[in-house]
Amino acid sequence: MRYQQIIFDVDDTIIDFAATEDFALHSLFNAHHWPLSPELQRQYHSYNQGLWRRLEQGEITYEELSEMTFHDFIKKNLGLEIDGMKAMDEYRSYFGEAHQLLPGVEDTLKFAKKQGYKLTILSNGEKFM
Asked: Long-range contacts: 14-19, Cβ < 8 Å, 24+?
């Protein structure tokens, strides 16, 4: 039996999630002239992953995560009071601009399409506009 459809995940299958996230974070910090050292970036990733674990465990809501991510991190590490939701919206807009493909993805998709496969992309990532 020949498969008729191939389903791809987006993050780290089609796009380089780490590169996209790095672009968005640097863009946000640069736009506000906030310093971003490699150590502060590591702290952000650790903090952000902790928030996502809390969301998965039902301790916080998605809206709380969205508000807290930059509000609390910037306040703690830079001593600045910011609108967390506004910063998150801005971050997400940068994230949507980057979508760097992983090596070989474009050729793979073109080949699969030429072979007659129906191509589908799914993601469990965030939906934002």
From this structure: 14/101, 14/102, 14/105, 14/121, 15/99, 15/100, 15/101, 15/102, 15/105, 16/100, 16/101, 16/102, 19/98, 19/100
